[in-house]
Amino acid sequence: MAKQQDFAEKVKKASAERGTKCPKCGAVKVPTAFINSVKTDIGSYRFNRSLIQVCKCNEKEVYA
Ligand SMILES: [Zn+2]
Questions:
Q1: Quick check: is 11 in a domain?
Q2: What is the mean pLDDT of each run of 10 residues along the chain (64 residues)?
């Protein structure tokens, strides 16, 4: 039984490293590349690429 416990601990640790759990919805936040278009002073568009943490709380905003 000790071996099974070790395995469970490893899985737990691995999932913890992959993402943080949202305290609100309980889902693991997934790092997602989010591209934002920003209009500059000269009227052209610049694209900002940022990595955001997506969970059930904000996925609708992100994937809209
Ligand atoms: Zn959430």
A1: no
A2: 76 66 93 89 92 92 81
